[in-house]
Design brief:
The protein has helices at about 10-25, 90-105, 105-110; strands at about 35-40, 40-45, 60, 70, 75. It has one domain. By secondary structure, the protein is of the alpha/beta class. A hairpin with a 2-residue loop joins strand 1 and strand 2. The chain has a five-stranded mixed sheet, covered by helices on one side.
Amino acid sequence: MTREMRPFNTADEYMHEQVKIWNSQVQKDDVKLNDHVELCGQMFFLTHRPKDHDKHCQTLFGHIHRGGGLYRPYGFNVGTDLYNYRLVDENVIKDLLERKLWWDDDIDIASLNGR
């Protein structure tokens, strides 16, 4: 598939592989979409679309693929196409939080985010 340079020939192949990866990583009691979770001492909301972010905590979202970058003022893009089609874990979130300290002070990134 040429969209987003995905390494799949068809949408069906992409979906089959995503389901296989998801099933290999997700456990029965893991957090699901549209749920809140505490990670690295902070509360996060997990949702598919960034427009559905929670105004009261950071949001972990996908949907925008690579075009949206990693960071928004309200949360982080954790779409699987940014992470070799794998779900992110707490170590990735910790890394994003550490980078956010730098992003908050970066003039160029702040201007992209409307600040």
